[in-house]
Each structure stands twice: as structure tokens, then as C-alpha cells.
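Session log. Operator J.P. requested a structure for one protein chain; no other inputs attached. Running the standard single-chain path with C-alpha cell output.
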Amino acid sequence: MVFDLSNRRLYLCVGVRDDLSDFLPAVLAGGVDVVQLREKDRSDEERLTAARVMRAICRDFDVPFVMNDSPELALASGADGVHVGQDDVSVARCRELLGDTAIVGLSTHAPAEFDAALTQAASYFSAGPIVPTPTKLGRAGTGIDYARECTARSDRPVFVTGGVSAENVGDLVRAGLRHFVVVRALTEAPEPARAARALRHSLDEALAAL
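Structure written below.
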């Protein structure tokens, strides 16, 4: 299946968790429209098992499912694509393994990285984290201006990372940003379905007001 990411706004990164079969449908129903399995600490076997569960759920919602780091696991799980960082396998290698229609995302954290990213065959980029976040330990925040510059210059979607929540996403939209990665606002929410709906409502309301 080929997905157009230009109108996908709310991108969830989530690790392996025991309640994926309940959690994932809840947040997808609430408005998440891209999902990534981002798991650094589990074995390939555990990640592959979780990925197959997540892929099936995402298919039911017509939502793209992306693996983090490994195009090999993306291929094995039937994922729609892969997301890689600056120190991971190259975008070119991902394309070689997954083909021209797969989703390939690339993280950027600085202007020089973004300049180089624009020359590569990525489907989308991420920019940030705009503020320090536990999911990127030791990495300083880039600030919002970096994400705004990337968004303004890019011919592909730029998903902003770092502390996105229902409380601040409206301000981020008004600042010129259009696509958002969310982690803790949903993965740590006591009521994920309600949290997803609130976040999506704030996002859509801000976009409609432009």
C-alpha cells in the first residue's frame, strides 16, 4: 500500500508494551494517523512480534506503520516503511531493501543535517527535538526556529519532535509547523483514547483557524 504523508498530522512513536492490542486501537480511533514502533531495548524477535501485531491494527485503520532503525525488520514485518537516524543505515540502503514506494523517514537535528537530508530520497523528515526530551537522552533542544526553517524549506513533510501535547500544539501550528510526533502525551496518558482525541482536536482546531 502506498501512503501520501502530506495530510498526515499526528505521528505516534511507541515502544513494545503489554497492552498494544488495546492501546493502539484507542489512539488510532482518537486521531493518530502514523505509527512507528520505536524500541531500543528489546530483541529483534520481540520487536518483530510486536511489529506484526501493530501492522495488522494499523491496516484496520488505514494508517501507515513504520519500523525504527531497521529496514530488515521493516521488510520482515510487512511494515510500510522505516525511520532512520543520522547514525543508522543510509536512506539509499533503505530504498534498496524496501523499494521506491516505501516510506523512509530521516531524523535531522541541525541545519547541516537538514541540508544533506534534502538531497536524499526520504519520504519525510523529522526536526528536533525542539525541547529536551527523555526519548532523546543527552540531546539538547533545537528550539522552534530550527523546525520552522526546516518546514519552510522542505518539499516533503517535516514532523516536529519534542514535547508535543494538546496544550502546546495549537501554538506550534500558529508558529508555522504542520506535522507532529507525539510520544509521552499518549504513551503515559492514563486514558489514551481521551488524550488522543484532545490532542487531535487541538491540532485540527488550530489548522482550521489558519
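Operator note: The longest strand covers residues 103-108.
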